[in-house]
Amino acid sequence: MMESEVTLQQRLENNRQRLYDLQEKYGLSHIDVLRQSMVLDELINQYNRIYYTKLKKPIA
Protein backbone atom coordinates (compact mmCIF):
# COMPACT_ATOMS: atom_id res chain seq x y z
CA MET A 1 0.00 0.00 0.00
CA MET A 2 1.37 3.40 -0.96
CA GLU A 3 2.27 5.86 1.80
CA SER A 4 -0.11 8.47 0.40
CA GLU A 5 -2.90 5.90 0.49
CA VAL A 6 -2.21 5.15 4.16
CA THR A 7 -2.12 8.87 4.95
CA LEU A 8 -5.37 9.37 3.06
CA GLN A 9 -7.01 6.53 4.99
CA GLN A 10 -5.87 8.15 8.23
CA ARG A 11 -7.27 11.50 7.12
CA LEU A 12 -10.53 9.80 6.17
CA GLU A 13 -10.86 8.21 9.59
CA ASN A 14 -9.98 11.45 11.42
CA ASN A 15 -12.48 13.45 9.38
CA ARG A 16 -15.16 10.77 9.79
CA GLN A 17 -14.73 10.97 13.57
CA ARG A 18 -14.88 14.77 13.43
CA LEU A 19 -18.15 14.52 11.50
CA TYR A 20 -19.61 12.18 14.14
CA ASP A 21 -18.50 14.51 16.93
CA LEU A 22 -19.97 17.59 15.24
CA GLN A 23 -23.22 15.79 14.51
CA GLU A 24 -23.51 14.69 18.12
CA LYS A 25 -22.87 18.24 19.34
CA TYR A 26 -24.98 20.22 16.84
CA GLY A 27 -27.38 17.86 15.04
CA LEU A 28 -27.53 16.90 11.38
CA SER A 29 -28.58 20.23 9.84
CA HIS A 30 -25.95 22.52 11.43
CA ILE A 31 -23.70 24.30 8.90
CA ASP A 32 -20.50 22.94 10.50
CA VAL A 33 -21.82 19.39 10.14
CA LEU A 34 -22.71 20.01 6.49
CA ARG A 35 -19.28 21.51 5.78
CA GLN A 36 -17.51 18.58 7.45
CA SER A 37 -19.65 16.18 5.44
CA MET A 38 -18.45 17.89 2.26
CA VAL A 39 -14.82 17.58 3.39
CA LEU A 40 -15.32 13.88 4.07
CA ASP A 41 -17.03 13.41 0.69
CA GLU A 42 -14.04 14.90 -1.11
CA LEU A 43 -11.61 12.65 0.80
CA ILE A 44 -13.74 9.62 -0.11
CA ASN A 45 -13.68 10.71 -3.75
CA GLN A 46 -9.88 11.05 -3.64
CA TYR A 47 -9.56 7.58 -2.12
CA ASN A 48 -11.87 6.09 -4.74
CA ARG A 49 -9.87 7.69 -7.56
CA ILE A 50 -6.67 6.09 -6.20
CA TYR A 51 -8.33 2.72 -5.64
CA TYR A 52 -10.03 2.49 -9.04
CA THR A 53 -6.94 3.71 -10.88
CA LYS A 54 -4.98 0.85 -9.29
CA LEU A 55 -7.65 -1.65 -10.36
CA LYS A 56 -7.37 -0.61 -14.01
CA LYS A 57 -3.58 -1.11 -14.17
CA PRO A 58 -2.59 -4.47 -15.66
CA ILE A 59 -0.51 -6.79 -13.49
CA ALA A 60 2.92 -7.35 -15.06
Shape: elongated
* Number of E strands: 0
How far is it from the N-terminal to the C-terminal residue, by CA?
17 Å
- Continuous helix count: 2
The amount of beta strand, in percent, is: under 5%
Portion of residues within helices? over 70%
What is the gyration radius calculated from CA atoms?
14 Å
- Mean pLDDT over the full residue set: 90
Q: Main β-sheet, in a few words?
A: none
The poorly predicted ranges are none
| Helix-strand string | HH
The structural class is mainly alpha
Give an account of the 3D structure.
With 60 residues, the protein is mainly α. It has two helices and no strands. It has helices at 3-26, 31-56. α1 packs antiparallel against α2.
Sum up the structure in keywords.
elongated; 60 residues; mainly alpha
Quick recap:
The chain has two helices and no strands.
Give a topology summary.
Elements: H1 3-26, H2 31-56
